[in-house]
Amino acid sequence: MRFTRPGSAARTLAIDMTPMIDIVFQLLIFFLVSSHMVEVARTEVDLPREQGEDDRSEELSGLVVNVLASGELVVGDAPRTLDELAALAGSLGESSGDDAASRRPLVRADRNAPAETLNAVIGTLERAGARSIRLATSPPGGGGP
């Protein structure tokens, strides 16, 4: 018993996988590059060993200020002065309105950084309009930043 018409060839659907493979490779490249950029942008700081908050919820940081052991301030990958930090923090708060992430900067201070510099950074951020400031710590058990 034949269900096909005589003389018609059997049809086969060929699925072209090339576009899907291209998209997968582009996603792979994107994630490799973006994860590498995160590691490059992170300044090596020996954080104080304190318990910190138990709240593990993720919150975006609008501004990350690194205070090195020498007292130097680094925002992103560039060294900054307190005046530049004030201008940067003020413009960040104005550009995003009442966004909580932009109003809660993260300060990553080296455990050997001068307290005077840390106090100046916190004072500058408060004058720029930060409602609260988070201070990064390492767990007391060891592990690095």
Descriptive key words:
145 residues; alpha/beta; Nucleotidyltransferase, domain 5; five-stranded mixed sheet; 4 helices; 5 strands; elongated
Structure, briefly:
The chain is of the alpha/beta class and 145 residues long. It is 38% helix and 11% strand.
Shape descriptor:
elongated
Q: Which class of secondary structure composition applies to the elements?
A: alpha/beta
**Overall mean pLDDT score?**
75
Unreliable segments (pLDDT under 50, ≥5 consecutive)?
none
Please, how many helices?
4
How many strands, what sense, and barrel or not for the largest sheet? 5 strands, mixed
Name the CATH architecture of the domain at 64-135: 2-Layer Sandwich
Oligomer: single chain
**Fraction of residues in β-strands:** 5-15%
Identify the strand order in the major beta sheet: 3-2-1-4-5
Q: Which CATH C-level class of the domain at 64-135 is it?
A: Alpha Beta
How are helices and strands ordered from N to C?
HEEEHHEHE
Q: Please give the share of residues in helix.
A: 25-40%
